[in-house]
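Hello everyone,

My group is preparing for a crystallization screen and wants a predicted model to guide construct design. The compound we'll soak is fe (ii) ion. Before spending weeks at the bench, it would help to have a computed complex in hand. I've included the protein sequence and the ligand's SMILES below. Output in structure-token form would be ideal because that's what our pipeline reads.
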Amino acid sequence: MTLPGLKFTLVALALGLACSQSSPTLQGQVPLALDETADTGVTGNTKGNQPIQWRVIWTTDPQHRATISWSTRKETGDNHLRIWPKGKDSQHRKVVAQHNGTFTLNVSEMKDLDPVYYHHVRLDGLEPGVTYEFELNSDGSKSRTLSFRSAPAIDSTESFSLIYGGDSRTGKEDRQRMNRLSAELTSRLPDAIAFVHGGDYIYDGRQFLQWTEWMTHDELRTTSDGRVLPIIPTRGNHDIGDLYDEVFDTPGAKGENYYHTTLPNGVNLLTLNTNISHAGDQRVWLAGQLMGLRPDSRWLLAQYHRPAYPAVKQPGEAKAAWVPLFEAHDVDLVFESDGHAIKRTVPIRGDKLDPTGVVYIGEGGLGVPQRTPDSDRWYLQSPGMSGRGHHLTTVSFSGDQLRLVTQGFAVDEESGRIGDPGGDSVIFDEVVMQRRGAE
Ligand SMILES: [Fe+2]
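Reply:
Good plan to model first. Here are the tokens for the complex, ready for your pipeline.
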């Protein structure tokens, strides 16, 4: 259907989509030993200096910067990576990890666990839109060759996609299935540039054992040819404590964890933190960002954890603190998590349907058991939608169009878990948005 202003074209609902089931070894029958890795390409990984649990992290300026992180089970003195533009090994450079430390263990973990070490290489000076290969090295023990692509230039007009999802804190086998689906999508989407995670990675952010499982399972998002989709992280209400910053190298400033990510083709993403005051400095920062970015943004996006327009719970503080700013500055699309259901709202302005308003999608299904949404809420009525299912949303930008495809796995009605872990994925929702004024 077509509405004036923001234009939505409802393309298909609940289509079947076959996904291949090529996947690495199913593991994660918890608890994981700390020397385990999901990477079947690594051999000899029981050595304590083996680089494991790699991550590529984006915050600001992903055209030129990225953090590449990994873990080792023993303290290592020489931690570096080699990186080179794909196919140009002769141009490799060595970058030493600038930030190394010991993951924080809580008191009970200290009794049973040896320390585990993190290593962060903060890359600068990358060329936009270049596929880089890299190899991690801790005291001579190497990872296999991995790769990622820097973000295309901000004035690039090429099409690109983000993969968005949230809430992976429980349902660990389902979490791994969703990570495999992400790898499948990444393999099929050469223009995918990043994975936007809406928070609640684990149940208790102060428990390192939960984080180390998550980091190991996150390796499963790597494609069979070693492509790692950078993660743009958001802090969820379960992600309390110091470990979030140790895992993601303190995205945004310490104590803030909010930041702006410049994406290609005039797309800007603001990541906010619903664990701290929504007013004060964060709101001032948000207002300034929105005012500065809107005139030159083709699409202006925001993400945070606790919803303003929830499908399950009551609205969070974002509704009073941030929604008026979103509407004043014509934010196009907002990613929310936390509810453990699927939703896409109608465009909202002034707390009612308005074709020129803001659309909110979400809200959490990377393995966490699904709840039943309150589908009677006015903002979930057609052309909005709601449902249950473990899901990822592919957000594809092409010219003045933005396409949302939400897909994943149907649930067992009683448990809310994936009904058939070996089954094919399905599409729950597909919609096309047209940029304001472009129709
Ligand atoms: Fe949450």
